[in-house]
Amino acid sequence: MSFSPLIDDLIESLRCLPGVGRKSAQRMALHILERNREGGAVLAQSLNLALDQVGRCEQCRTHSETPVCRMCRQPDRDPATLCIVETPADVLAIEQGAGFKGLYFVLMGHLSPMDGIGPNELGLDALISRLSDDHITEVIVATNPTIEGDATAHFIHQLIRQQLGTQAINVTRIAHGVPIGGELEYVDGGTLAHAFAGRKSYT
After folding, report:
1. CA distance 14 to 174
2. Contact, 127 vs 105, CB < 8 A?
3. Predicted confidence (pLDDT) per residue in 49-58, tens digit
4. CA 93, CA 89: separation in Å to the nearest integer?
5. What contacts 95, CB < 8 A, 6 or more positions away?
């Protein structure tokens, strides 16, 4: 069974969202049409405005409707520490839980040759330019603990060493390990391996 062409188009459009299949998209579309047309109009307006006006910050490359995002303009952030992440969602996660007070550089992905994503697509030339111009003393590589994330972290480390030397900038990698409140018997082996590899001495 199919609906009218406009309703079918709405359902198919909603399927572009992550994790939304046809059934979920159908429920969303019918809910908007049957119960919340005003909310649907607000959603459409907000979506159009965001698509039209949101670009990337010239400094950190996260989403922003201004040339330099609000975070990069905050005067109380530490300009000497730069955290490299894969996505804007990673910035939000760190801001909400890590207590990090430095600045960011968003790759918008990770190295994936099979998908055609190389150093140019990640803006690594812009990263090296920023590290050369700014007074940054530490780079924290916070890519995801995946094969692609680890490969990207290693590539960035080597690139900084080749371009800027071994003494200019301290490059660190976030440790991945047992979550707070977790029990060892329920933690997978890969997580435990990262926990042991990233262990620190008591002070």
Report:
1. 36
2. yes
3. 999 999 999 9
4. 6
5. none
Q: Which of 98, 96, 123 is nearest to 108 (CA)?
A: 123
Q: Within this chain, do residues 40 and 106 fall inside the same structural domain, yes or no?
A: no
**Tens-place pLDDT, residues 111-155:** 998 888 888 889 999 999 999 877 898 899 989 888 898 899 999
Tokens coding 22:
């046809």
Contact between 14 and 33 under an 8 Å Cβ cutoff? The reply is: no
Give residue 109's region: left, alpha or beta (phi > 0; psi -120 to 50): left
Domain contains 135: yes
User: What is the mean predicted confidence (pLDDT) over 192-198?
Assistant: 74
- Regarding beta strands 138-141 and 170-173, do their DSSP bridges make them parallel or antiparallel, or are they unpaired? parallel
Q: What is the CA radius of gyration of the chain?
A: 21
Predicted local confidence at residue 202, as pLDDT:
55
Mean pLDDT of 17-45: 95
Range of the domain at 23: 5-53
Are 29 and 81 part of one and the same domain? no
| 149 in a structural domain | yes
My answer on whether 119 and 183 are in the same domain is yes
Q: Chain-centre distance of CA 196, in angstroms? A: 26
CATH number of the domain at 150, please: 3.40.1360.10
Q: What is the mean pLDDT of residues 171-189?
A: 76
